[in-house]
Design brief:
- The chain is an all-alpha fold.
- It has one domain.
- 73% of the residues lie in helices and 0% in strands.
- The longest helix is centred in the C-terminal third of the chain and has 30 residues.
- The two termini are 41 Å apart.
Length: 325
């Protein structure tokens, strides 16, 4: 019971999320597998865990701090829950286009241009030379490694912000990656012509040209999986809100709570992720703005939940008042 109470927050989120996505997929007649991404998640998580403890040994050369069975059990439970949620997330995401379509793209394209005076990608392509766009292309592909590294850190860290980070990370996948993606079903500029029939963003793709090599391959595979309705790991088309920017923002928030230098470093990563998402056509700029805002909301909400739980479980029992004769 003590274990369940201590980990109630992320266990509850996992249980509700799996039940909700499972029921929805069953109702819609869509495939659903909590192990969809296991063959990617498990080996990468194991390798990064080794790197984490190698770094810990460098930090504590005389021996690692004793964790105890309770803490190790909590870490493995979190990793297992995240694994199951990731499989359910990608299964749910791949249903969006087939069930809801992508009705929001025209509206988001107009709003993006109206807010910025023109399409934001035009500003970025005007200042970024071809080699700069190639660099952005390669950088943007590192987000998956950041997400897995943060997941590994959340698993094993002994930071005082760990529990809040764990819960906020899960809430971000729920509210940004799933609920937001369904509510604002959109595919983004990169798929605009395919989903709307409009050539509005063809100049963007022409401007990218050969500098788009890595993400161009990802785009081709993503569209092929969607067109053939294949249930594959890491599949699915979704633009608003941006999970890439939301995840990067959350990492920056957690880092900033540890040190100013780390906060600036990962804030830079988040800004570059936003720039990359627009430059490469994966997102409208407003996707990133909303993603960043929701990441902050998830962090604050997690802090309140974890804080209340800590107060309930750690407050000392009242002491008896001595009787006077």
């Amino acid at each position: 019971m003590r274990f369940l109470r201590a980990n109630a927050a992320f266990l509850t989120v996992t249980a509700v999320y799996l039940a909700a996505t499972g029921f929805t997929q069953l109702y819609l007649g869509r495939p659903w597998s909590v192990l969809l991404t296991a063959r990617v998640f498990v080996p990468v998580w194991c390798v990064l865990s080794v790197f984490y403890f190698v770094a810990e040994l460098a930090r504590y050369p005389r021996g690692l701090p004793d964790r105890g069975r309770f803490e190790i059990g909590s870490a493995l439970a979190f990793a297992g829950c995240l694994l199951l949620m990731q499989g359910a997330f990608h299964a749910s995401k791949q249903s969006i286009g087939h069930v809801a379509g992508f009705p929001w793209d025209p509206a988001f394209a107009r709003l993006d241009a109206a807010l910025h005076g023109t399409d934001p990608w035009r500003y970025l392509h005007a200042v970024l030379p071809a080699w700069g766009r190639i660099g952005v292309d390669r950088f943007y592909a590192t987000w998956g490694l950041l997400a897995m590294a943060f997941s590994t850190w959340c698993t094993w860290s002994r930071s005082p912000f760990r529990d809040q980070a764990r819960l906020a990370w899960m809430l971000t996948w729920v509210w940004v990656g799933t609920v937001g993606a369904w509510v604002f079903a959109s595919a983004g500029p990169i798929f605009y012509e395919k989903t709307t029939g409009s050539s509005y963003f063809v100049p963007l793709l022409d401007s990218l040209g050969s500098s788009w090599s890595m993400n161009q391959a990802i785009e081709g595979l993503g569209w092929q999986a969607f067109a053939l309705d294949l249930n594959v790991p890491m599949g699915g088309l979704s633009a608003m809100p941006s999970m890439h920017v939301a995840g990067s923002t959350l990492v920056a928030i957690v880092a900033a709570n540890h040190s100013r230098r780390a906060g600036w470093l990962f804030s830079g990563f988040a800004v570059l992720t936003l720039i990359g998402s627009v430059t490469l056509g994966w997102h409208y700029a407003i996707d990133g703005y909303l993603g960043a805002l929701l990441a902050w909301v998830c962090w604050r909400a997690a802090g309140r939940i974890v804080g209340r739980r800590a107060t309930r479980t750690e407050s000392p029992a009242p002491t008896a008042v001595p009787r006077t004769s």
